[in-house]
Design a protein that fits this description.
Helix content: 40-55%
Number of helices: 24
Largest sheet: 5 strands, mixed
Number of strands: 13
Strand order of the largest sheet: 2-1-3-11-4
Oligomer: single chain
Shape: globular
Radius of gyration: 24 Å
Protein backbone atom coordinates (compact mmCIF):
# COMPACT_ATOMS: atom_id res chain seq x y z
CA UNK A 1 0.00 0.00 0.00
CA UNK A 2 1.21 3.45 -0.85
CA UNK A 3 2.57 5.28 2.16
CA UNK A 4 0.58 8.15 3.59
CA UNK A 5 2.21 11.45 2.75
CA UNK A 6 1.11 14.99 3.49
CA UNK A 7 1.09 17.88 1.03
CA UNK A 8 3.17 20.83 2.14
CA UNK A 9 1.41 23.75 0.48
CA UNK A 10 -1.95 24.84 -0.86
CA UNK A 11 -2.04 25.22 -4.63
CA UNK A 12 -3.43 28.38 -6.21
CA UNK A 13 -7.17 28.55 -6.73
CA UNK A 14 -8.42 27.42 -10.10
CA UNK A 15 -9.43 30.34 -12.30
CA UNK A 16 -12.86 28.99 -13.11
CA UNK A 17 -15.15 26.17 -12.04
CA UNK A 18 -16.12 23.48 -14.48
CA UNK A 19 -19.65 23.95 -15.77
CA UNK A 20 -21.15 20.88 -14.17
CA UNK A 21 -24.64 20.18 -12.98
CA UNK A 22 -25.47 17.75 -10.20
CA UNK A 23 -26.97 15.41 -12.75
CA UNK A 24 -23.64 14.97 -14.49
CA UNK A 25 -21.41 15.23 -11.41
CA UNK A 26 -23.10 13.30 -8.65
CA UNK A 27 -22.33 9.66 -8.25
CA UNK A 28 -25.30 8.81 -6.07
CA UNK A 29 -27.09 5.91 -7.69
CA UNK A 30 -30.83 6.15 -8.20
CA UNK A 31 -32.71 3.11 -6.97
CA UNK A 32 -29.65 1.09 -5.95
CA UNK A 33 -29.53 -0.35 -2.45
CA UNK A 34 -26.11 -1.97 -2.64
CA UNK A 35 -23.48 -0.31 -0.47
CA UNK A 36 -19.77 -0.77 -0.89
CA UNK A 37 -18.20 -4.08 -0.12
CA UNK A 38 -16.45 -4.53 3.20
CA UNK A 39 -13.00 -3.75 1.88
CA UNK A 40 -10.52 -1.23 3.17
CA UNK A 41 -7.95 -1.03 5.93
CA UNK A 42 -10.14 -1.17 9.02
CA UNK A 43 -8.85 -4.59 10.02
CA UNK A 44 -5.66 -2.97 11.28
CA UNK A 45 -3.83 -3.21 14.57
CA UNK A 46 -6.06 -1.67 17.22
CA UNK A 47 -4.16 -2.97 20.22
CA UNK A 48 -3.53 0.57 21.45
CA UNK A 49 -6.57 2.52 22.66
CA UNK A 50 -6.92 5.90 20.93
CA UNK A 51 -8.74 8.74 22.68
CA UNK A 52 -10.32 10.87 19.96
CA UNK A 53 -11.99 14.21 20.60
CA UNK A 54 -15.26 14.66 18.76
CA UNK A 55 -17.77 17.52 18.30
CA UNK A 56 -21.29 16.61 17.12
CA UNK A 57 -24.82 17.97 17.25
CA UNK A 58 -26.28 14.93 19.01
CA UNK A 59 -26.62 14.71 22.77
CA UNK A 60 -25.61 11.34 24.20
CA UNK A 61 -26.33 10.70 27.88
CA UNK A 62 -23.92 8.91 30.21
CA UNK A 63 -26.34 5.99 30.33
CA UNK A 64 -26.54 5.78 26.53
CA UNK A 65 -22.76 5.70 26.22
CA UNK A 66 -22.87 2.40 28.07
CA UNK A 67 -25.36 0.71 25.74
CA UNK A 68 -24.42 -2.10 23.38
CA UNK A 69 -24.40 0.04 20.24
CA UNK A 70 -21.69 2.41 21.46
CA UNK A 71 -19.80 -0.46 23.09
CA UNK A 72 -19.73 -2.21 19.70
CA UNK A 73 -17.84 0.66 18.08
CA UNK A 74 -15.56 1.25 21.06
CA UNK A 75 -14.54 -2.40 21.05
CA UNK A 76 -14.32 -2.81 17.28
CA UNK A 77 -11.99 0.17 16.84
CA UNK A 78 -10.62 0.46 20.40
CA UNK A 79 -11.66 4.11 20.66
CA UNK A 80 -12.45 6.23 23.67
CA UNK A 81 -14.40 9.36 22.82
CA UNK A 82 -13.60 12.79 24.24
CA UNK A 83 -17.13 13.89 23.43
CA UNK A 84 -18.26 17.48 22.88
CA UNK A 85 -21.98 18.14 22.43
CA UNK A 86 -22.65 21.27 20.38
CA UNK A 87 -26.10 22.81 20.65
CA UNK A 88 -27.79 23.76 17.41
CA UNK A 89 -28.17 27.45 18.31
CA UNK A 90 -24.46 27.90 19.07
CA UNK A 91 -23.13 25.57 16.36
CA UNK A 92 -21.72 28.16 13.94
CA UNK A 93 -20.23 30.39 16.61
CA UNK A 94 -18.67 27.61 18.69
CA UNK A 95 -16.97 26.04 15.68
CA UNK A 96 -15.80 29.46 14.50
CA UNK A 97 -14.18 30.13 17.87
CA UNK A 98 -12.53 26.71 18.00
CA UNK A 99 -11.18 26.99 14.46
CA UNK A 100 -9.82 30.53 14.80
CA UNK A 101 -8.20 29.75 18.15
CA UNK A 102 -6.61 26.59 16.71
CA UNK A 103 -8.49 24.56 19.29
CA UNK A 104 -10.58 22.19 17.16
CA UNK A 105 -11.40 18.71 18.43
CA UNK A 106 -9.83 15.94 16.36
CA UNK A 107 -12.99 15.67 14.24
CA UNK A 108 -16.04 17.93 14.13
CA UNK A 109 -19.29 18.29 12.26
CA UNK A 110 -19.16 21.76 10.72
CA UNK A 111 -21.78 23.85 8.92
CA UNK A 112 -19.72 24.37 5.77
CA UNK A 113 -19.74 27.70 3.98
CA UNK A 114 -17.32 28.63 1.24
CA UNK A 115 -16.20 32.04 2.50
CA UNK A 116 -15.08 30.72 5.87
CA UNK A 117 -13.66 27.57 4.32
CA UNK A 118 -11.42 29.56 1.98
CA UNK A 119 -10.14 31.67 4.86
CA UNK A 120 -9.50 28.67 7.09
CA UNK A 121 -7.57 26.78 4.43
CA UNK A 122 -5.43 29.79 3.57
CA UNK A 123 -4.58 30.24 7.26
CA UNK A 124 -3.71 26.59 7.76
CA UNK A 125 -6.52 26.07 10.29
CA UNK A 126 -7.84 22.82 8.81
CA UNK A 127 -6.16 19.45 8.44
CA UNK A 128 -4.92 18.61 4.95
CA UNK A 129 -5.55 14.99 4.01
CA UNK A 130 -2.73 12.75 2.78
CA UNK A 131 -2.34 12.54 -1.00
CA UNK A 132 -3.23 8.86 -1.05
CA UNK A 133 -6.16 8.87 1.39
CA UNK A 134 -8.65 7.65 -1.23
CA UNK A 135 -6.56 4.55 -1.85
CA UNK A 136 -6.25 3.84 1.86
CA UNK A 137 -9.98 4.38 2.55
CA UNK A 138 -11.84 3.53 -0.70
CA UNK A 139 -15.32 3.23 0.82
CA UNK A 140 -15.11 6.68 2.39
CA UNK A 141 -13.75 7.98 -0.92
CA UNK A 142 -16.74 6.61 -2.81
CA UNK A 143 -19.12 8.37 -0.45
CA UNK A 144 -17.04 11.56 -0.64
CA UNK A 145 -17.27 11.58 -4.43
CA UNK A 146 -21.07 11.37 -4.30
CA UNK A 147 -21.05 15.13 -3.70
CA UNK A 148 -19.70 16.97 -6.75
CA UNK A 149 -18.84 19.89 -4.49
CA UNK A 150 -16.21 17.79 -2.71
CA UNK A 151 -14.46 17.22 -6.00
CA UNK A 152 -14.73 20.89 -7.02
CA UNK A 153 -13.22 22.03 -3.73
CA UNK A 154 -10.41 19.51 -4.07
CA UNK A 155 -9.54 20.88 -7.52
CA UNK A 156 -9.67 24.50 -6.43
CA UNK A 157 -7.54 24.04 -3.32
CA UNK A 158 -5.20 21.35 -4.56
CA UNK A 159 -6.10 18.89 -1.83
CA UNK A 160 -8.74 17.65 0.61
CA UNK A 161 -9.52 19.81 3.65
CA UNK A 162 -13.17 18.99 4.23
CA UNK A 163 -15.52 16.04 3.74
CA UNK A 164 -18.98 17.31 2.84
CA UNK A 165 -21.43 14.75 4.21
CA UNK A 166 -23.42 13.18 1.35
CA UNK A 167 -27.19 12.89 1.57
CA UNK A 168 -27.32 10.12 -1.02
CA UNK A 169 -24.63 7.68 -2.06
CA UNK A 170 -26.26 4.38 -2.98
CA UNK A 171 -30.01 5.05 -2.86
CA UNK A 172 -30.93 8.30 -4.58
CA UNK A 173 -34.68 8.47 -5.21
CA UNK A 174 -34.39 10.23 -8.57
CA UNK A 175 -31.88 11.31 -11.18
CA UNK A 176 -31.23 14.19 -10.86
CA UNK A 177 -31.78 14.20 -7.12
CA UNK A 178 -34.64 16.35 -5.85
CA UNK A 179 -34.75 17.59 -2.28
CA UNK A 180 -37.02 16.14 0.39
CA UNK A 181 -39.48 18.98 0.88
CA UNK A 182 -42.93 19.37 -0.65
CA UNK A 183 -44.67 16.19 0.57
CA UNK A 184 -47.68 16.69 2.84
CA UNK A 185 -49.44 14.34 5.20
CA UNK A 186 -53.17 14.86 5.70
CA UNK A 187 -55.87 13.20 7.71
CA UNK A 188 -57.44 10.76 5.26
CA UNK A 189 -60.36 9.98 7.53
CA UNK A 190 -61.23 13.67 7.82
CA UNK A 191 -60.88 14.15 4.06
CA UNK A 192 -63.33 11.33 3.45
CA UNK A 193 -65.70 12.77 6.07
CA UNK A 194 -65.82 16.19 4.37
CA UNK A 195 -65.88 14.81 0.82
CA UNK A 196 -62.35 15.87 -0.22
CA UNK A 197 -60.71 13.85 -2.99
CA UNK A 198 -57.54 11.90 -2.20
CA UNK A 199 -54.94 12.39 -4.94
CA UNK A 200 -51.21 12.11 -5.51
CA UNK A 201 -50.74 15.84 -6.01
CA UNK A 202 -52.61 18.98 -5.02
CA UNK A 203 -52.37 22.61 -5.99
CA UNK A 204 -51.97 25.15 -3.21
CA UNK A 205 -55.59 26.21 -3.66
CA UNK A 206 -56.75 22.63 -3.30
CA UNK A 207 -54.96 22.34 0.04
CA UNK A 208 -56.80 25.51 1.14
CA UNK A 209 -60.08 23.96 0.02
CA UNK A 210 -59.36 20.95 2.23
CA UNK A 211 -58.42 23.20 5.15
CA UNK A 212 -61.63 25.23 4.81
CA UNK A 213 -63.82 22.12 4.66
CA UNK A 214 -62.18 20.68 7.76
CA UNK A 215 -62.46 24.00 9.59
CA UNK A 216 -66.15 24.34 8.72
CA UNK A 217 -67.18 20.76 9.48
CA UNK A 218 -64.64 19.83 12.21
CA UNK A 219 -64.83 16.05 11.62
CA UNK A 220 -62.51 15.41 14.57
CA UNK A 221 -64.71 17.40 16.98
CA UNK A 222 -61.73 19.43 18.16
CA UNK A 223 -63.34 22.84 18.36
CA UNK A 224 -60.84 25.65 19.01
CA UNK A 225 -57.95 23.17 19.14
CA UNK A 226 -58.25 22.35 15.43
CA UNK A 227 -55.39 23.55 13.19
CA UNK A 228 -56.32 22.94 9.54
CA UNK A 229 -52.79 23.62 8.21
CA UNK A 230 -50.04 23.24 10.80
CA UNK A 231 -46.90 24.82 9.35
CA UNK A 232 -43.93 26.52 10.96
CA UNK A 233 -42.33 29.45 9.03
CA UNK A 234 -39.99 27.20 7.04
CA UNK A 235 -42.74 24.80 6.06
CA UNK A 236 -45.14 27.66 5.36
CA UNK A 237 -42.57 29.08 2.92
CA UNK A 238 -42.37 25.67 1.26
CA UNK A 239 -46.14 25.28 1.15
CA UNK A 240 -47.18 28.74 -0.05
CA UNK A 241 -44.23 30.53 -1.62
CA UNK A 242 -41.61 28.24 -3.13
CA UNK A 243 -44.41 25.89 -4.23
CA UNK A 244 -45.45 28.69 -6.61
CA UNK A 245 -42.09 30.32 -7.40
CA UNK A 246 -38.82 28.78 -8.57
CA UNK A 247 -36.63 31.47 -6.98
CA UNK A 248 -38.07 32.33 -3.60
CA UNK A 249 -36.03 30.44 -0.98
CA UNK A 250 -32.46 30.73 0.28
CA UNK A 251 -31.05 28.14 -2.12
CA UNK A 252 -32.58 29.76 -5.20
CA UNK A 253 -33.18 33.44 -4.38
CA UNK A 254 -30.21 34.66 -6.43
CA UNK A 255 -30.25 33.20 -9.93
CA UNK A 256 -29.25 33.90 -13.52
CA UNK A 257 -32.26 34.76 -15.69
CA UNK A 258 -32.82 33.91 -19.35
CA UNK A 259 -30.78 36.96 -20.39
CA UNK A 260 -27.81 35.73 -18.38
CA UNK A 261 -28.22 38.41 -15.69
CA UNK A 262 -28.13 37.61 -11.98
CA UNK A 263 -31.45 38.56 -10.39
CA UNK A 264 -33.15 38.53 -6.99
CA UNK A 265 -36.18 36.24 -7.17
CA UNK A 266 -38.07 37.45 -4.05
CA UNK A 267 -38.49 40.88 -5.67
CA UNK A 268 -40.57 39.42 -8.51
CA UNK A 269 -44.35 39.86 -8.67
CA UNK A 270 -45.05 36.13 -8.50
CA UNK A 271 -43.68 36.11 -4.96
CA UNK A 272 -46.13 38.85 -4.00
CA UNK A 273 -49.00 36.80 -5.42
CA UNK A 274 -47.87 33.75 -3.45
CA UNK A 275 -47.62 35.82 -0.27
CA UNK A 276 -51.20 36.99 -0.78
CA UNK A 277 -52.40 33.37 -0.66
CA UNK A 278 -50.20 32.75 2.40
CA UNK A 279 -51.70 35.75 4.21
CA UNK A 280 -55.22 34.78 3.17
CA UNK A 281 -54.73 31.38 4.82
CA UNK A 282 -53.48 33.08 7.98
CA UNK A 283 -56.30 35.60 8.16
CA UNK A 284 -58.93 32.92 7.55
CA UNK A 285 -57.65 31.02 10.57
CA UNK A 286 -56.37 28.08 8.55
CA UNK A 287 -52.90 28.29 10.16
CA UNK A 288 -51.90 28.07 13.78
CA UNK A 289 -52.57 31.56 15.20
CA UNK A 290 -48.96 31.64 16.39
CA UNK A 291 -47.40 29.72 13.49
CA UNK A 292 -44.51 32.20 13.44
CA UNK A 293 -43.38 30.89 16.84
CA UNK A 294 -43.31 27.23 15.80
CA UNK A 295 -39.86 25.73 15.28
CA UNK A 296 -39.99 22.32 13.65
CA UNK A 297 -42.62 21.26 16.19
CA UNK A 298 -45.56 21.71 13.81
CA UNK A 299 -45.51 17.98 13.07
CA UNK A 300 -46.16 17.24 16.74
CA UNK A 301 -49.64 18.70 16.45
CA UNK A 302 -50.40 16.22 13.68
CA UNK A 303 -49.20 12.92 15.12
CA UNK A 304 -48.74 13.61 18.83
CA UNK A 305 -51.56 16.01 19.73
CA UNK A 306 -53.82 14.96 16.86
CA UNK A 307 -55.09 18.51 16.33
CA UNK A 308 -53.73 19.22 12.83
CA UNK A 309 -55.37 18.23 9.55
CA UNK A 310 -52.34 18.69 7.26
CA UNK A 311 -48.60 19.25 7.68
CA UNK A 312 -45.41 19.19 5.62
CA UNK A 313 -44.18 15.66 6.24
CA UNK A 314 -41.07 15.56 4.05
CA UNK A 315 -40.31 13.15 1.26
CA UNK A 316 -38.45 10.14 2.62
CA UNK A 317 -39.91 6.94 4.04
CA UNK A 318 -38.40 7.48 7.48
CA UNK A 319 -40.66 10.51 8.01
CA UNK A 320 -43.69 8.43 7.08
CA UNK A 321 -42.60 5.68 9.47
CA UNK A 322 -42.17 8.24 12.26
CA UNK A 323 -45.72 9.43 11.65
CA UNK A 324 -46.96 5.84 11.86
CA UNK A 325 -45.10 5.08 15.09
CA UNK A 326 -46.05 8.34 16.81
CA UNK A 327 -49.73 8.16 15.89
CA UNK A 328 -49.99 4.68 17.31
CA UNK A 329 -48.06 5.59 20.45
CA UNK A 330 -49.75 8.92 21.20
CA UNK A 331 -53.19 8.68 19.62
CA UNK A 332 -53.85 4.96 19.36
CA UNK A 333 -54.45 5.36 15.62
CA UNK A 334 -53.32 3.20 12.71
CA UNK A 335 -51.83 5.76 10.34
CA UNK A 336 -52.43 3.47 7.37
CA UNK A 337 -56.14 4.03 7.99
CA UNK A 338 -56.07 7.77 8.70
CA UNK A 339 -53.12 9.34 6.80
CA UNK A 340 -52.71 10.15 3.12
CA UNK A 341 -49.60 11.61 1.46
CA UNK A 342 -49.18 13.73 -1.66
CA UNK A 343 -47.11 16.54 -3.13
CA UNK A 344 -48.03 20.23 -3.45
CA UNK A 345 -47.81 21.81 -6.89
CA UNK A 346 -48.20 25.44 -7.77
CA UNK A 347 -51.61 26.56 -8.95
CA UNK A 348 -50.24 26.27 -12.50
CA UNK A 349 -50.04 22.51 -11.92
CA UNK A 350 -46.24 22.46 -11.96
CA UNK A 351 -43.99 21.44 -9.10
CA UNK A 352 -41.69 24.37 -8.23
CA UNK A 353 -39.87 23.14 -5.13
CA UNK A 354 -37.13 21.33 -7.04
CA UNK A 355 -33.76 22.51 -5.74
CA UNK A 356 -30.83 20.75 -7.36
CA UNK A 357 -27.86 20.91 -5.05
CA UNK A 358 -24.47 19.43 -4.44
CA UNK A 359 -25.86 16.46 -2.50
CA UNK A 360 -24.59 17.28 0.96
CA UNK A 361 -25.58 18.61 4.35
CA UNK A 362 -22.88 19.84 6.74
CA UNK A 363 -19.34 18.46 6.74
CA UNK A 364 -16.53 16.80 8.64
CA UNK A 365 -13.37 18.73 9.39
CA UNK A 366 -10.28 17.65 11.27
CA UNK A 367 -7.93 19.55 13.53
CA UNK A 368 -4.61 20.49 11.91
CA UNK A 369 -3.06 19.19 15.13
CA UNK A 370 -4.59 15.71 15.00
CA UNK A 371 -2.02 12.94 15.37
CA UNK A 372 -1.46 10.55 12.46
CA UNK A 373 -2.59 7.69 14.69
CA UNK A 374 -5.89 9.35 15.59
CA UNK A 375 -6.56 10.39 12.03
CA UNK A 376 -6.00 6.88 10.74
CA UNK A 377 -8.18 5.34 13.45
CA UNK A 378 -11.14 7.67 12.87
CA UNK A 379 -10.83 7.24 9.09
CA UNK A 380 -10.85 3.47 9.55
CA UNK A 381 -14.14 3.84 11.44
CA UNK A 382 -15.60 6.17 8.78
CA UNK A 383 -14.50 3.86 5.99
CA UNK A 384 -16.18 0.87 7.64
CA UNK A 385 -19.44 2.78 8.17
CA UNK A 386 -19.52 3.40 4.41
CA UNK A 387 -19.66 -0.34 3.66
CA UNK A 388 -22.85 -2.38 3.39
CA UNK A 389 -22.13 -3.99 6.76
CA UNK A 390 -21.41 -0.63 8.35
CA UNK A 391 -24.51 1.02 6.93
CA UNK A 392 -26.67 -1.82 8.23
CA UNK A 393 -25.29 -1.42 11.75
CA UNK A 394 -25.47 2.38 11.73
CA UNK A 395 -29.06 2.42 10.59
CA UNK A 396 -30.60 -0.81 11.89
CA UNK A 397 -28.52 -1.62 14.95
CA UNK A 398 -26.67 -4.80 15.82
CA UNK A 399 -26.99 -7.86 13.60
CA UNK A 400 -28.65 -10.78 15.36
CA UNK A 401 -30.04 -8.46 18.01
CA UNK A 402 -31.91 -5.72 16.15
CA UNK A 403 -32.05 -7.28 12.69
CA UNK A 404 -31.07 -10.39 10.79
CA UNK A 405 -30.89 -11.73 7.25
CA UNK A 406 -33.86 -13.81 6.15
CA UNK A 407 -33.73 -15.27 2.63
CA UNK A 408 -30.98 -12.82 1.75
CA UNK A 409 -32.92 -9.77 2.95
CA UNK A 410 -32.24 -7.75 6.09
CA UNK A 411 -35.27 -7.91 8.39
CA UNK A 412 -35.76 -5.84 11.53
CA UNK A 413 -36.20 -7.71 14.81
CA UNK A 414 -37.41 -4.63 16.67
CA UNK A 415 -41.08 -4.41 17.47
CA UNK A 416 -43.36 -2.02 15.64
CA UNK A 417 -43.48 0.27 18.67
CA UNK A 418 -39.75 0.95 18.77
CA UNK A 419 -36.86 1.85 16.51
CA UNK A 420 -33.09 2.09 16.66
CA UNK A 421 -33.15 5.68 17.90
CA UNK A 422 -35.60 4.87 20.68
CA UNK A 423 -33.45 1.93 21.75
CA UNK A 424 -29.97 3.43 21.56
CA UNK A 425 -30.36 7.20 21.27
CA UNK A 426 -28.13 9.21 18.96
CA UNK A 427 -25.75 7.04 16.95
CA UNK A 428 -22.88 9.51 16.64
CA UNK A 429 -20.55 6.89 15.15
CA UNK A 430 -22.47 7.22 11.90
CA UNK A 431 -20.37 10.26 11.12
CA UNK A 432 -20.37 10.49 7.38
CA UNK A 433 -23.17 9.20 5.13
CA UNK A 434 -26.42 10.82 6.26
CA UNK A 435 -29.16 8.40 7.24
CA UNK A 436 -31.38 9.80 4.44
CA UNK A 437 -29.54 7.52 2.01
CA UNK A 438 -30.32 4.32 3.87
CA UNK A 439 -33.85 5.48 4.69
CA UNK A 440 -34.82 5.34 1.01
CA UNK A 441 -34.71 1.54 1.06
CA UNK A 442 -34.37 0.78 4.77
CA UNK A 443 -35.78 -2.75 5.21
CA UNK A 444 -36.89 -1.90 8.75
CA UNK A 445 -39.30 0.66 7.24
CA UNK A 446 -42.54 -0.63 5.76
CA UNK A 447 -42.12 -1.40 2.07
CA UNK A 448 -45.28 0.49 1.16
CA UNK A 449 -43.86 3.66 2.73
CA UNK A 450 -40.61 3.30 0.81
CA UNK A 451 -42.41 2.72 -2.47
CA UNK A 452 -44.80 5.61 -1.90
CA UNK A 453 -42.10 8.16 -1.10
CA UNK A 454 -39.95 7.08 -4.03
CA UNK A 455 -42.96 7.39 -6.34
CA UNK A 456 -43.75 10.87 -4.99
CA UNK A 457 -40.13 11.95 -5.51
CA UNK A 458 -40.36 10.94 -9.15
CA UNK A 459 -43.72 12.70 -9.44
CA UNK A 460 -42.08 15.93 -8.24
CA UNK A 461 -39.52 15.69 -10.99
CA UNK A 462 -42.16 14.82 -13.59
CA UNK A 463 -44.43 17.69 -12.54
CA UNK A 464 -41.54 20.17 -12.59
CA UNK A 465 -41.47 19.61 -16.37
CA UNK A 466 -37.77 20.44 -16.56
CA UNK A 467 -38.22 23.97 -15.24
CA UNK A 468 -35.45 24.13 -12.67
CA UNK A 469 -31.93 25.52 -12.59
CA UNK A 470 -28.71 23.59 -12.92
CA UNK A 471 -26.27 23.99 -10.07
CA UNK A 472 -24.35 27.27 -10.46
CA UNK A 473 -20.72 26.72 -9.55
CA UNK A 474 -19.78 30.37 -10.05
CA UNK A 475 -22.40 31.36 -7.51
CA UNK A 476 -21.36 28.62 -5.10
CA UNK A 477 -17.73 29.68 -5.08
CA UNK A 478 -18.22 33.43 -5.12
CA UNK A 479 -16.98 35.03 -1.93
CA UNK A 480 -17.28 38.66 -0.82
CA UNK A 481 -18.47 40.92 1.97
CA UNK A 482 -21.42 41.92 -0.21
CA UNK A 483 -22.48 38.27 -0.49
CA UNK A 484 -22.29 37.82 3.28
CA UNK A 485 -24.44 40.92 3.85
CA UNK A 486 -27.04 39.74 1.34
CA UNK A 487 -27.89 36.55 3.25
CA UNK A 488 -31.48 36.57 4.55
CA UNK A 489 -33.66 34.18 6.53
CA UNK A 490 -36.45 34.10 3.95
CA UNK A 491 -38.79 31.95 6.02
CA UNK A 492 -38.69 34.50 8.84
CA UNK A 493 -38.88 37.45 6.44
CA UNK A 494 -42.00 36.10 4.73
CA UNK A 495 -43.65 35.24 8.06
CA UNK A 496 -43.06 38.80 9.27
CA UNK A 497 -44.74 40.16 6.14
CA UNK A 498 -47.74 37.89 6.65
CA UNK A 499 -48.46 39.01 10.21
CA UNK A 500 -47.52 42.66 9.66
CA UNK A 501 -50.40 45.14 9.88
CA UNK A 502 -51.42 47.17 6.85
CA UNK A 503 -51.60 46.43 3.15
CA UNK A 504 -49.48 43.42 2.12
CA UNK A 505 -48.53 44.78 -1.29
CA UNK A 506 -47.34 48.07 0.19
CA UNK A 507 -45.43 46.25 2.92
CA UNK A 508 -43.84 43.89 0.42
CA UNK A 509 -42.73 46.71 -1.90
CA UNK A 510 -41.23 48.56 1.07
CA UNK A 511 -39.49 45.35 2.12
CA UNK A 512 -38.04 44.86 -1.38
CA UNK A 513 -36.71 48.45 -1.39
CA UNK A 514 -35.22 48.00 2.09
CA UNK A 515 -33.50 44.71 1.33
CA UNK A 516 -32.35 45.75 -2.13
CA UNK A 517 -29.84 48.02 -0.41
CA UNK A 518 -28.13 44.80 0.72
CA UNK A 519 -28.88 42.70 -2.34
CA UNK A 520 -27.93 45.09 -5.17
CA UNK A 521 -24.19 45.33 -4.39
CA UNK A 522 -24.02 41.53 -4.49
CA UNK A 523 -25.89 41.41 -7.79
CA UNK A 524 -23.60 44.08 -9.24
CA UNK A 525 -20.54 42.08 -8.28
CA UNK A 526 -21.94 38.89 -9.79
CA UNK A 527 -22.94 40.60 -13.03
CA UNK A 528 -19.52 42.18 -13.39
CA UNK A 529 -17.64 38.86 -13.02
CA UNK A 530 -17.46 38.20 -16.75
CA UNK A 531 -16.44 41.76 -17.54
CA UNK A 532 -13.19 41.80 -15.56
Amino acid sequence: MKAISKKKAVSALCLAAMALSFASCGSATSGSSQAASSSGSFQGDYSETRTISLAVLDNVTDEQWENDFHKFFKEKFNIEWDYNYVEWGSWDEKLRVWINSDDLPDVSIWNYNYTDFENYVNQGLLYEFPDDWKERWPNAAKAYEASPLNQELEERFGGTYVMLRPIYVYNAQTDPVVNQIGVVGLRKDWAEAVGFELKDSYTVQETLEYARLVKEQDPGNLGDQLIPLCLDPNNAMTHFVSSQCNHARTETAIYKNDEGVYTWGPAEEEVLEALKVYQQAYREGLLDPEFYLLNDDDKDKFYINGTAAMYQMGGVAEFRQTCDTEMDKNLGLDSDEVVHTGIVNGDDGKYHNVVLGANYWSSLIFSPNISDENFERIMDLIDWTCTEEGQNVCNMGLEGVDWEYQDGEAVSLLGEDTNVYDKYGARIESLYILEDDFAVNNPSIKEEYRTRMNDLAQLKLDNAQGEYDDFDWDLEFYSSKAKDQAQLDYAAEYANLIVQEGDLETNWRNWVDEKMVLIQPYLDELNSMGQN
